[in-house]
Amino acid sequence: MHSDPALPLDGITVVSVEQAVAAPLATRTLADLGARVIKVERADGGDFAREYDHVVHGTGAHFVWLNRGKESLAVDLKTAEGRDAVRRLVARADVFVQNLAPGAAARLGFGAAELRADRPELVAADLSGYGTGGPREQRKAYDMLVQAEAGLIGITGTPDTPVKTGIPTSDIASGMYCAQAVLAALLRRWRTGQGATVEVSMLEATVEWMGYAMYSQMYSGRQPARMGLSHASIAPYDAYPTKDGQMLIGVQNDSGWRTLVTSVLEAPQLADDPRFTTNVRRVEHRAECDAAVAAETARWSTVELDERLANAGIPAAQVKQVADVVADPQLRARDRWRRIGTEHATVDALLPPVTFADVEARMGDVPAFGAHTRALLEEAGVDAEDLLRRGIAAEPR
Questions:
Q1: One domain, residues 313 and 339
Q2: Tell me, what's the pLDDT at 319?
Q3: What is the pLDDT of residue 282?
Q4: Among all residues, which ones are annotated catalytic?
């Protein structure tokens, strides 16, 4: 008889001194995969993200997104007793993650070198804005600021207006690279017995995501243009009007162009127009190409055009609002929503995008502030009642 399949990280314990987005996303990824994650929060209010807003039945949207499946330990790391309690938990953990201000973890006795001196098998991950060393090491590193420093804002928006992305891209990039690095380090430890010291920089994660734009700049000497919904190297590639809205259409090769104008738009005269026969020519004549496509797309409703494009295999999409995504039939058909608990209510949460065929992600509850403080202090072998009474630790009121 076979036992139920295990999640990949069952049996792994993570202690994380974390706040905001980047490190909490990394550790939530590990929790979803089965790790036990102990989230260390400030005793005087906890993770700042708890108070960004209260839109999810009294709990912050960021916090619900990033902290399911964790245990909350609220303790004052400025006290010797608080630090001792956390050190005791780290001494039994497999992974330690932190994203405090530069140098703060080391000053508190939680630097990777100090922790791994006693336990070389520990995986210690430091996540920061700009990395150790360099002129910006000590700078504040909020997501928007890093997007600016990485050049992302410089290529995002319209020709007239640069904008940041609508989601915290730098936080997400660094959080995902941090989780990836921890998994790699654990795999190596399984082979060698040795842990790892890992550093992840929000700046470097975001610059990596700049990808082709960075190489284009380096080897052409030209700043990539802000193109709005368009694309610097492809045409037609933009939003085009319909009778009642608009459709995004992206044609990446010449056969696709011919299919678009003949089968979908029923404008065969455009197929052999010398201005539009190749992608290079269409880019050179982008304004005329866009105008010609727009004149034809405006003949159909959005629903009609969407169906015609899909049937012809032309890459296209409607511009959806977030409410449309929440109700998206694709997500519903694939059964991607689950119910999880929060401090005040049960809410919907999306399964992580990685699906294992034999076992489902662990969709744990979002912890109330200090919900596990007493139990974790007792597990650490310290006097929980004393630390709670003295305000060194905190639990839900």
A1: no
A2: 87
A3: 96
A4: 231
| Residue 99 near residue 22, CB atoms below 8 Å | yes
Cα Rg for the chain, rounded, in angstroms? 25
Judge whether 152 and 165 are in contact, CB under 8 Å. Answer: yes
Low-confidence ranges of the chain (pLDDT < 50): 1-3
Domain assignment of residue 231, yes or no = no
In-domain check, residue 2: no
Q: How many residues does the chain have?
A: 397
> Could you report the per-residue pLDDT of 309-358, keeping only the tens digit for each?
999 999 999 988 899 999 999 999 999 999 999 999 999 999 999 999 99
pTM above 0.85, yes or no: yes
Supply φ then ψ for residue 2, to 5 degrees: -90, 140
Q: Of the residues 273, 296, 318, which one is the last residue of a structural domain? A: 318
Output b/e per residue, 18-48; b: 16+ Cβ within 10 A: bbbbbbbbbbbbbbbbbbbbbbbbbbeebbe
Kind of pairing between the strands at 393-394 and 36-41: unpaired
Q: What is the pLDDT of residues 122-131, one digit of tens each?
A: 999 999 999 9
Cα 351 from Cα 361, distance rounded (Å): 7
CA-to-CA distance for 237 and 150, rounded, in angstroms?
A: 25
Residues 77 and 189 in one domain: yes
Residue found by looking up tokens 């977030």 in the block:
322
Assess contact for 286 and 344: CB atoms under 8 A: no
CA dist., res. 340 & res. 349, Å (int): 7
E strands within the chain? 13-17, 36-41, 70-75, 95-98, 123-128, 196-201, 237-241, 246-250, 316-318, 337-341, 346-350, 393-394
How much is the pLDDT for 384? 96
Say whether 216 sits in a helix, a strand or coil.
helix
